[in-house]
Amino acid sequence: MLIELLLSLFMGIIFGIITGLAPGIHTNLVSAILLSLSASLVLFFSPLTLVIFIVTMSITNSFLDFIPSIYLGAPDEDTALSVLPGHFLLLKGKGHEAILLSLLGALCGIALLVIIIPLFILIIPKIYPFIERMMSYFLVLICILLLSRAKEKIPALVIFILAGFLGFLTLSLPLKQPLLCLLTGLFGSSTLIYSISQKTEIPEQKISPLKLDKKIFIKPLLASSIVSPIVSFFPGMGNSEAAISGSTLLGKLSRKQFLILLGSISTLTMALSFVALYSINKARTGSAAAVSQLINLDFSSLLLILISITLVSLISSLIAIKLSKIFAKNISKFNYSKISLAVLIFLSLIVLFFSGFMGFLVFISSTILGLTCSYFSVRKGYLMASLLVPTIFLYLPI
Amino acid sequence: MKNSHVKYLFLLLSLLSLFLLFILSLIYPIPKIPLNQISEKNIDEKILVEGIVERAYETQQVSYLTLNDSNLSIILFYPQNKIKINSSIEIIGKLSNYKGKLQLNADSIRCLRC
Question: Which of A64, A158, B49, B84 lies at a 20 to 30 A Cα distance from B17?
Answer without folding.
Answer: B49
